[in-house]
Write a structure and sequence with these properties.
Order of helices and strands: HEHEHEHEEHEHEHEHEHEHHEH
CATH architecture of the largest domain: 3-Layer(aba) Sandwich
Number of helices: 12
Number of strands: 11
Length: 331
């Protein structure tokens, strides 16, 4: 081989060997500089809800820490599928992240055959923001003041009590079916169009029981217009320590989490995910942010990506069993 060709071949070989190292160095530089432009936060529901308000406020505070705007975008439709699908298809570069909830992120996996994403495979967790506890509530006409008294009443009156949900496969439908199975009781499921209609019927005494966020009926509860028997969680609520957890009456009950949290498209570099998690957890330590969450009678979580990922896997396993128990099939 002539010297010129030999030098050319050597240069090409060196360039080939160096390419991965140069790309790695470039990625490291980009990650260290992150963010250099606005970050889009996709939320799969309309504006106006407490989750939307807290998500927007957290995004504003995170922007001050990161030095770039966080653009909050509402992408509602198909019970969260449209916005979640858009986030799943986004580039995994840290410039699109997703604020989501248990209902939008996990429950749809068991309701739709044509779901255009897998929540565990197409996303990487950032942090869980808050636990949104829900409680077993009954009308004042129901002669029970504790979970055990309610279970005894249901066993004496099989099939005579109705319970409401916001639709087949909704979180309160699945929790209701879990409760029935764990307690060995029978109740009639009545689906409604929304939580507002359920509240009206419960207060009027035309509905016997439901499972809703306690913050949505806090005033009525404190006024004695409804009774809250238990939180559907493994532990008591820190703001309501006098109300038992459902597992105290039913140790075999396996609740799933009802939360709001941030995730990113799968493949987002780990250093970027870690930076976002650290930023959001710093925001969650700000007193007025915590106060906003406390106002809803929710609980601040603030977790590592690893802890949030483990919780998601556990919730999926519990939900798989719960949907099978409820007989709800994807359509």
């Amino acid at each position: 081989m002539r010297p010129t060709l030999r030098r050319l071949a050597c240069a090409l070989a060196c360039a080939t060997l160096a390419a991965p190292f140069l790309a790695h160095a470039q990625n490291q530089t980009q990650t260290q500089a992150y963010p250099t432009r606005p970050i889009h936060v996709v939320f799969p529901y309309p504006s106006g809800s407490p989750i939307d308000a807290i998500g927007r406020l957290m995004s504003e505070r995170a922007a001050k820490i990161l030095g770039q705007p966080l653009v909050f975008e509402n992408k509602p439709g198909a019970n969260g599928i449209i916005g979640t699908g858009q986030a799943a298809r986004a580039a995994a570069d840290g410039y699109t992240i997703h604020l989501t909830t248990t209902s939008a992120f996990l429950l749809n996996s068991f309701l739709r055959k044509d779901l255009p994403y897998d929540p565990l495979k197409n996303f990487t967790p950032i942090t869980a923001v808050a636990d949104i506890p829900v409680a077993l509530m009954v009308s004042t006409k129901v002669p029970a003041n504790t979970p055990r008294e309610f279970i005894d009443y249901l066993r004496r009156n099989p099939g005579k009590t109705n319970y409401a949900s916001v639709g087949n496969g909704s979180f309160n439908h699945i929790l209701g079916e879990q409760f029935k199975a764990a307690a060995g009781v029978d109740m009639m499921h009545v689906p409604y169009q929304g939580a507002g209609q359920i509240a009206i019927e419960l207060l009027a005494g035309r509905l016997d029981t439901t499972i809703l966020s306690v913050g949505s009926l806090l005033g009525q509860w404190k006024a004695g217009q409804i009774k809250v028997l238990a939180f559907m969680s493994p532990t008591r609520h820190p703001l309501h320590p006098d109300v038992p957890a459902i597992t105290e009456a039913l140790p075999n009950f396996r609740p799933f989490g009802n939360w709001m949290g941030f995730v990113a498209p799968n493949g987002t570099p780990a250093p970027i995910v870690a930076k976002l998690a650290q930023t959001f957890n710093t925001v969650l330590q700000q007193p007025d942010i915590r106060a906003k969450i406390d106002e809803q009678h929710w609980s601040v979580i603030g977790s590592t990506p690893e802890a949030f990922g483990a919780a998601l896997k556990n919730d999926m396993a519990v939900l798989r069993d719960a949907f099978e128990m409820a007989g709800v099939k994807p359509e």
